[in-house]
Amino acid sequence: MTAIADLSATALTAAIRARRISPVEAVEAALARIDERKDLNAFMAIPAERARAEARKAEQALASGDPVGPLHGVPFSVKDLTNTEGVATTQGAALFADTVPTADAVSVARARAAGAILIGKTTTPEFGHKPFTEGPFFGRTLNPYSYAHTCGGSSGGAAVAVASGMGPIALGSDGGGSIRIPAACCGVVGLKATLGAVPHLQVPDLFGANSFVGPMARNVADTRLLFDAIHGPDRRDPYGQVAAFPSRVLAKGERPRIGFLLRCGNILDPEVETAVTAAMARAEALGMIVEPIELDLVALEPHFLVLLRSLLLARLGGQAQRTPDKLDPTLIATIEAGRAYSAADLCEAQFARSACFQKIQDILSRCDLIASPTLSAPALPVGVDPLGRVEIAGRDAGTIRGAWYPYTYPFNLTGHPALSLPCGLSRAGLPIGLQLVGRWHEEHYLLAIAERLEAVLAFDGSVL
């Protein structure tokens, strides 16, 4: 019999509604698993007593026959970059250890309104500045597949939590791949939605935003379940100024056309190439049309760095000078690198962002979606310098964004929805991710295709 902690959110909601499992049992199972797997170091804060109290209220609502939401009684976690009312949000930094928001972020509020119960805040590198979930404030979060390899980042704690049964669903955030990178490393599903589809009002520049809050889960159905609860317009978001977002569904018998981007100017690990190519063969066997496309995304790395470093400098430059001992040295180095850029550099980066958007739009005028590896290689070994050069397939592949995750950060800049789906394991037993990218606001179409592929890929990456 499957343990409660290992049930999918979809199965758990059905069991709760049928009164086979109570919300109290669901929350207790998640909390017990968190305690059992505390070696993984996936949580920053665990409001256990509040979660238990909410579970009791959820149970009472069922007993009274009250209307319940689609996530009623389901435990969920939130990355420590996203505000949670009454629960510390530290940004992964000792500097903000005592920061307790007075209101939930929109995504958190919507998940809770749907009935989900917050069980904890998951680990993240300071301000999500690097793709490894580690820092001086909390240490290192471990990859449940291999302690010798990174769990990815910056939503590493969220990915580890869902992969290990510490709640079936989680909210991560993605500023350059931070949902999809750890999803690929930990064998789970992660969705970065269209710009504005999930309001993210914490970012200081709402108009030039490239950071997204999104769902993570062990399967596509659960990812959709959480996405449905949190997405929707919000007039406080410049990209949410509509009554409802358009929607496209996958028609019965439709043969989607996939633009397959195998390389994008990068060195590719042979095992990743084999896994994603095999996934595309499975797509063709399902009747999908797969055609190769070419696109140089590595060339965008210098422009992405201008945007990232300039933003961190503007937000944290003063703190880095006043209290350098309270920040991660890699964050300080990233901030200081931003001082070298001019206003013209920043404008040129925005020009490059616009040009990339147009290229993606052109491809998606011919194709229904784009498929690629999520990462150039499986999870990197622990100890790789995020500011140094990366080796892939025995070769110097360059700096980490262009070398390891050139497929992810461009879609933060263009705003297109992008999802990472497990598609295999390396010989060393490390998960490999397949990325699917769709047109703006076609998340449900993207999820439907991902679910078809999930069924034939039959990924079994259980780490329990």
Description:
This protein has 14 helices and 15 strands. By secondary structure, it is an alpha/beta fold. The protein has 2 domains: 4-230, Amidase signature (AS) enzymes, CATH 3.90.1300; 258-457, Amidase signature (AS) domain (Amidase signature (AS) enzymes), CATH 3.90.1300.10. Helix 4 links the parallel strand 2 and strand 3 (117-122). The protein is globular and about 60 Å long.
Describe the SSE topology.
Elements lengths: L8 H9 L5 H14 L6 E3 L2 H17 L10 E5 L26 H8 L3 E6 L11 E2 L3 E2 L15 H8 L5 E6 L5 H7 L2 E4 L19 E6 L2 H11 L26 E4 L9 H16 L3 E4 L8 H22 L6 H9 L5 H24 L2 E5 L15 E4 L2 E5 H5 L4 H6 L3 E8 L5 E8 L4 H15 L7
Parallel strand pairs: 2-3, 2-6, 9-10, 9-11
Antiparallel strand pairs: 1-3, 4-5, 6-8, 7-8, 7-14, 11-15, 12-13, 14-15
Radius of gyration: 21 Å
Number of beta-strand segments: 15
Encode the helix/strand succession as letters: HHEHEHEEEHEHEEHEHEHHHEEEHHEEH
**Percentage of helical residues?**
25-40%
Strand content: 15-25%
* CATH class division of the largest domain: Alpha Beta
Derived structural class:
alpha/beta
- The spatial strand order of the largest sheet comes to 1-3-2-6-8-7-14-15-11-9-10
**Helical stretch count?**
14
**What do we call the CATH homologous superfamily of the largest domain?**
Amidase signature (AS) domain
Name the shape in a single word.
Answer: globular
Low-confidence stretches: none
**Cα distance, first to last residue?**
14 Å
Mean pLDDT: 97
* Count of domains: 2
CATH fold description of the largest domain: Amidase signature (AS) enzymes
